[in-house]
Amino acid sequence: EPSSKSIENMRKFSEQYARRSGTYFCADKSVTSVVIKGLAEHKDTLGAPLCPCRHYDDKPAEASQGFWNCPCVPMRERKECHCMLFLTPENDFAGKDQTISADEIKDLTASLG
Amino acid sequence: AAAAAAAAAGVGSRIRVKGPLKVFHVPKNPEFDLGGQEGEVKEVLTSWKGKIISANLPYKTQFALSIDGKEVKLIAHLREDEFEVI
Q1: Is 0.90 surpassed by the pTM of this model?
Q2: Is the pLDDT of residue B62 over 80?
Q3: Which residues of chain A neighbour B24 with C-beta distances below 8 Å?
Q4: Closest chain B residue to A66 measured between Cα atoms?
Q5: How far lies A40's CA from each of A87, A110, B53, in Å?
Q6: In the predicted model, is pLDDT for residue B4 greater than 70?
Q7: Would you call A68 an interface residue with chain B, using a CB distance cutoff of 8 Å?
Q8: What is the interface pTM, i.e. ipTM, of the complex?
Q9: Residue of A23, A67, A80, A87 to mutate for B, most B C-beta atoms under 10 A
Q10: pLDDT score recorded for residue B2
C-alpha cells in the first residue's frame, strides 16, 4: 500500500497536470484512482512515479532513465496517456473533471485487493 | 529498404519526419506539426547503464524550428518508422 503522503502528492500533481495540459480524468474515476495509487507506490519504492500501467524488466533502471516517469515522454510530447489518467477532451472516455479528492481515491479503491 | 535505412539511424543521423506528427510541447505553440521537419538524432534510448529499457519512442532528436521568423530548438522523441534518414 502506498503512503498517504505519496498518494496526496500524486493526487495534487494529477490535478495540476490535467489543468496545465488541458486534459480530463476518465469518466470512471476508479481508473484515475488506481493509476494515482500506482504512481504513489512507485514513488515510494523507486523514488520516482514510474508509469504503473506498463511492464518493465528493470524498474530501477527505467526510473533512473526517466522516459516512463509520469508525465512520461509520450504524454508530454503527444498527449498520449495509455493509463487513461490524462485524457484529451475528444477521447470517448474523458469525463468533465480535472479534480479528484482524497476521499474519492480511497472510496474507489477500497474494494480492491 | 526504407525500414533498413531507418534502422541504420544512430546518433548524429540527419533525419526528416514523415508527416504528419503533432506535438504539444513547443513553447507558445500548443499544437505543432513536425511533419517534414529535419532534425538530428542525439540519442537512441535502448539501455541505461547496461540495462535494457523500454522507451517506445527511442530516437531522441533535436530540431531547429523556424517559427514566426525565430529559431526555436526542440527535442522530440520518435519511433523508427516515423522518419527517414537524409
Answers
A1: yes
A2: yes
A3: 21, 76-79
A4: B55
A5: 20, 16, 21
A6: no
A7: yes
A8: 0.93
A9: A67
A10: 55
**A53 included as an active-site residue:** yes
Crossing angle of helices A4-21 and A102-109, rounded to 10°: 110
Q: What is the pLDDT of residue A16?
A: 98
Residue B45, C-alpha cell as written in the block: 534510448
Domain that holds residue B71: 2-85
Output the pLDDT for position B3.
Answer: 55
Cα nearest neighbour of B79 on chain A: A74
Mutant choice from B53, B75, B78 vs A, greatest count of A C-beta within 10 A: B53
Rounded Cα–Cα distance for residues A76 and A35 (Å): 17
Is A70 marked as a binding-site residue?
A: yes
Domains, chain A, in order of start with CATH, read 4-109 (3.90.460.10)
Segment A60-98, tens digit of pLDDT = 999 999 999 999 999 999 999 999 999 999 999 999 999
Number of domain units in chain B: 1
H/E run at residue B62: strand B59-67
CATH number of the domain encompassing residue B53: 2.30.30.50
Residues 6+ apart with CB under 8 A from A10: A36, A37, A39, A40, A43, A49, A70
